[in-house]
Write a structure and sequence with these properties.
The complex is a heterodimer of chains A (about 375) and B (about 290). Chain A is α/β, with parallel strands linked by helices. Chain A has two domains: about 180 residues, 3-Layer(aba) Sandwich (Rossmann fold), CATH 3.40.50.2300; about 130 residues, 3-Layer(aba) Sandwich (Rossmann fold), CATH 3.40.50. Chain A is built from twelve helices and 14 strands. Chain A has a seven-stranded mixed beta sheet, sandwiched between helices. Chain A has a five-stranded parallel beta sheet with strand order 2-1-3-4-5, with helices on both faces. In chain A, helix 2 crosses helix 11, helix 3 runs parallel beside helix 4 and helix 5 packs across helix 6. Chain A is elongated. Chain B is mostly helical and about 290 residues long. Chain B is about 75% helix and about 0% strand. Chain B has a two-stranded antiparallel sheet with strand order 1-2. In chain B, strand 1 and strand 2 form a beta hairpin. The radius of gyration of chain B is 19 Å and the shape is globular. The termini of chain B are far apart. The chains are: A alpha/beta (about 375), B mainly alpha (about 290). Chains A and B meet through strand 7, helix 7, helix 8 and helix 9 of A and helix 1, helix 8 and helix 10 of B.
């Protein structure tokens, strides 16, 4: 009799889960947290942190396990991004990686994730070919290929432009890809390309290119650049006397409030397409904006919003998979059906965003991005 | 349009010239390749930014403060890093490597203190609306750049050619040992030249910060590359060479971008450097050094 009771007790005890010695679920994130790319990477980090707090405060995933974010700084450098990826995969053994920030970095670091068969989700990588890197690369960022044509069409419709000049930085995968897409969209709209000018991401003087463009009497200038150089282009363009009637528009690199900050008054009227807008009226978005403002003392931007949604998407996928095992996690990610601050989100079988409905074209008004009226 | 492009070239060339003249001083007089020089650009810009924003000083005062502060930083760095090398009569490459490490360290420190954010000088500092002169658009900033560089360059030449200190510096550049035998306080002079060069670099940084409306820790790095090209084209250690070559480089870059293709803008400058090394290795103003057995 006695041994049976002990046996029963032991069996009962085996099923008791200690409430406070749960292992965390480790998720890695590689973002540009220093250097010029910090204006994208820091909001992304904040978006992830806000979402992580919300997920963890509601009980975490897989029955009470908290998500533990491990952030690595790539400083916008490809080699650093690759090193960070290797460290997260081999030493920290994360179950998934969010990032890197730049398409340039994803092309360098993504293959490592593919090799290790760990999902990597780009929240801000919008160049062509990201998801072609491998079947473990996902992207929640709306690709330039979906947004830029909308921007170009909107500019043409609103201002009746006929002749454009295009400028791009030729040493970054994202800006080059954005330029290719911009050129194709401009040609598709039947617009005349007066000239194509290039510069380096690190350049600060564009006076030569802009003077040349000014002499060609174009109706609009399309710029594919990251925020730093891009803001410099806009600023110098107006300084050189390119009239406000010459519309300037750009790709995703301009989706940062820092552009208006750096370029000041010169940025007025600048147009860019984006999948998210801070003034979107739905309650989920408003709640996100308020929570973000309270926690970080500044307004969120598109990068923060996309990162916020992405973490929820990942958390839901972990729950759906019922495990952190990579193959089941990948399958669960493919089945994503999430309603986030960017709207409804699904992946295509090729792991890109399925819906392009949410794209809206904004223009800078009084120093801030606003919808066109 | 040609007039505007020439004006653009003048502005860009002025900045290159100012920066390169300081660099030439350190190279020609001190005999060191001082990569820290690029850092002084950012240091000067940040110091002035702080002076304007937090101390509320007017631009000229903030710029002076920035230049002086950077000069002091330069002297400190030199005492720590370059003087021991000089004492040990280390080869030139040693200064290259040591200052490379130094600039990495200092850039990281700057990140730590100021963060990666791009800052800008307050908009109210200078008029933002361009003045039209016929076909030319001239911004207040560009005018300030050209005038400031012209004044500084003239002052520098007068100083080097006409004053006793200037003669001492030139003596130092030719032969430090002989100069010291002549009673020149070598260590003090080196510090002085470092101070001066860093101050010039700081002013270049402020001008760049104003012109492109961006102040960030790495702003000096693109200039450093150009500076190497400039001093090779102009002649190692020759200030006139740095001035002429700096202006020439600005001209080459702008004209290439404006009339050929902006894809080749950077390449053109370095092509000029390669051509110089090929055809006239001592540079425009350099004296060819003949070795006597």
């Amino acid at each position: 009799m006695k041994p049976a009771i002990y046996l029963a007790l032991a069996a009962a005890l085996a099923f008791v889960q200690p409430a406070f010695s749960q292992e965390t679920v480790k998720v890695g994130s590689i973002e540009g947290l220093s250097g010029p790319i910090a204006k994208y990477g820091v909001p992304i980090r904040h978006g992830i942190e806000l979402a992580t707090d919300e997920v963890n405060s509601k009980g975490g995933v897989l029955g009470g396990r908290k998500i533990e974010m491990i952030f690595e700084d790539s400083a916008g450098q490809k080699d650093q991004a690759l090193n960070a990826m290797k460290k997260l995969l081999a030493r920290d053994r994360v179950i998934a990686v969010i990032g890197p920030t730049l398409s340039n970095e994803m092309f360098a670091a993504g293959p490592a994730a593919v090799e290790r068969q760990i999902p990597a989700i780009g929240t801000s990588t919008t160049a062509d070919g990201i998801t072609d890197i491998g079947e473990w690369i996902f992207r929640t960022a709306m690709p330039e290929a979906d947004v830029i044509p909308v921007t170009v069409a909107t500019v043409k419709k609103r201002y009746g432009i006929k002749r454009v000049a295009l400028m791009y930085s030729n040493d970054d995968a994202f800006t080059k890809s954005g330029f290719d897409i911009m050129k194709a969209a401009v040609e598709k709209q039947g617009l005349e390309i007066a000239t194509i000018e290039s510069f380096s991401t690190k350049d600060t003087d564009f006076s030569a290119q802009l003077t040349k463009i000014k002499g060609l009497n174009v109706d609009a200038i399309g710029v594919s650049a990251l925020a730093e150089a891009g803001a410099g282009v806009v600023l110098q363009a107006r300084q050189l006397g390119i009239a406000p009637s010459v519309v300037m528009f750009g790709g995703n690199g301009f989706n940062s409030p820092k552009v208006a900050e750096i370029a000041g008054k010169a940025a007025e009227g600048f147009m860019v397409g984006t999948p998210w807008f801070i003034g979107k009226k739905d309650p989920l978005n408003q709640q996100f904006v308020a929570a973000y403002k309270q926690k970080f003392n500044e307004e969120p931007d598109q990068f923060a919003a996309q990162a916020y949604d992405t973490l929820f998407i990942l958390a839901e996928a972990i729950e759906r998979a019922g495990t952190t095992e990579n193959i089941k996690l990948r399958e669960a990610l493919l089945k994503t059906d999430h309603k986030g601050v960017l709207g409804p989100f699904r992946f295509t079988p090729h792991r890109d965003p399925a819906s392009t409905e949410g794209v809206v074209v904004l223009a800078v008004k009084n120093g801030k991005f606003d919808t066109l009226d | 349009m040609l007039a505007q492009q020439l004006f653009n070239a003048l502005v860009l060339g002025s900045i290159y010239a100012l920066f390169s003249m300081g660099f030439t001083l350190t190279f020609g007089v001190l005999g060191v390749i001082n990569l820290l020089y690029g850092f002084y650009v950012a240091a000067g810009a940040f110091l002035s930014l702080v002076a304007v924003r937090d101390l509320g000083l007017p631009l000229w005062a903030a710029a002076t403060l920035g230049a002086l502060g950077t000069g002091i930083i330069a002297v400190a760095c030199d005492s720590a890093v370059l003087t021991p090398l000089r004492r040990a009569k280390a080869p030139e490459l040693a200064s290259l490597i040591v200052t490379l490490g130094g600039v990495l360290l200092l850039n990281s420190l700057m990140f730590l203190i100021f963060g990666a954010e791009v800052r800008r000088f307050p908009v109210t500092l200078l008029s933002q609306s361009p003045i039209s002169l016929g076909m030319l658009q001239i911004g207040a900033v560009q005018l300030v750049i050209i005038v400031t560089v012209a004044i500084l360059v003239t002052a520098l030449f007068l100083f080097i050619e006409r004053t006793r200190l200037g003669i001492a510096i030139r003596a130092l550049a030719e032969n430090p040992d002989a100069a010291s035998l002549m009673g020149v306080n070598v260590d003090a002079m080196f510090m002085g030249v470092s101070f001066l060069a860093a101050a010039l670099s700081a002013i270049a940084g402020i001008l760049i910060g104003l012109n492109f409306n961006a102040v960030h820790p790495y702003m000096g790095e693109p200039l450093m590359l150009r500076a190497f090209a400039v001093i090779i084209i102009g002649g190692l250690g020759d200030i006139r060479g740095a001035l002429v070559a700096g202006l020439a480089l600005g001209f080459i870059e702008v004209m290439t971008a404006g009339y050929l293709s902006s894809n080749f803008k950077d390449a053109a400058g370095f092509a000029a450097m390669v051509a110089t090394l090929w055809l006239r290795p001592s540079g425009l103003f350099g004296r060819s050094v003949t070795k006597r057995a």
